[in-house]
Amino acid sequence: MASHHRGRIPSYLATATALLLAFLLPPLAASQWQSCGKNSNFTQNSTYQANIQALSTTLPKNASSSRTLFALASVGTVPDIVYALALCRGDANASACGDCVSNGFKDAQQLCPYSKDATVYYDPCYLRFSNQNFLSSTNGDNSVLVLYNTQNVTVPVKVFDAAVGMLINATADYAATNSSRRFGTGEEGFETIDKAKPKIYGLVQCRPDMSPADCRSCLADIITYIPQYFTGRQGGRILGLRCNYRYEQYPFFTEPSLLQLPAPSVGAAPSPAPANVTPPPVVGGE
């Protein structure tokens, strides 16, 4: 079972929202993370709560019946309007997608009681509802959760980090040009470096309504944080509302990889690390 701890907030994030670093032990079955808004609450049996309930009956069906497993909607009028978005992972089936989004509405109201703004992430899907309109695909909120595996690699760190960067970038290119789903999975041979763990697996996804350029730009922003948060880590992920990715040294998605990369040559010099960048806007949770 995964263990969760609050990460210490670095000094350079003092002006940003609180940072959540969830330390994860594989496998990540039934994992769940939430982010609760702190600026506005609703009351029990209010119109706002009724609007959430109305969305909870329609959005799971809309997402699960969508070819891209994606749905967004709004219900009500100001000041009780509720905006909501749900996206299931590209390898989820319709039934699992609908169940995941339905559970999201239940869990969000338990984990973020009476908060008008709540986000819940799972392995198969994520859900957000809010009184603020965040539904734009071009400039919507992409505050992120940063999560990583507590186990370090046992091979040269620079070689491993370079392999991860190559895999995630290649998978991001695939996802951005996949016009139907903005979803990609990949695997990279690593047996020339680590015979005990001969492959690295990656998954990348954007909102399906994003353009290829917007998707790739969003991914480029969060990929630059690999050396900042994941150096030498066996696995890690960044979860965002607009785009996200994950990598591990074990298979964690259900379908065959859409992209295969060869193993690096023994003795090959690693690619240079990206330049230092400003840390991402991150959201907190308990």
UniProtKB/TrEMBL annotation:
Domain Gnk2-homologous: 30-134, 141-252
Keyword Signal: yes
Protein name from the UniProt record: Gnk2-homologous domain-containing protein
Recorded superkingdom: Eukaryota
Keywords linked to the UniProt accession: Repeat, Signal
Organism from which the protein derives: Triticum urartu (Red wild einkorn)
Signal peptide range: 1-30
InterPro entries per record: GNK2, GNK2_sf
One family name in Pfam for this protein: Stress-antifung
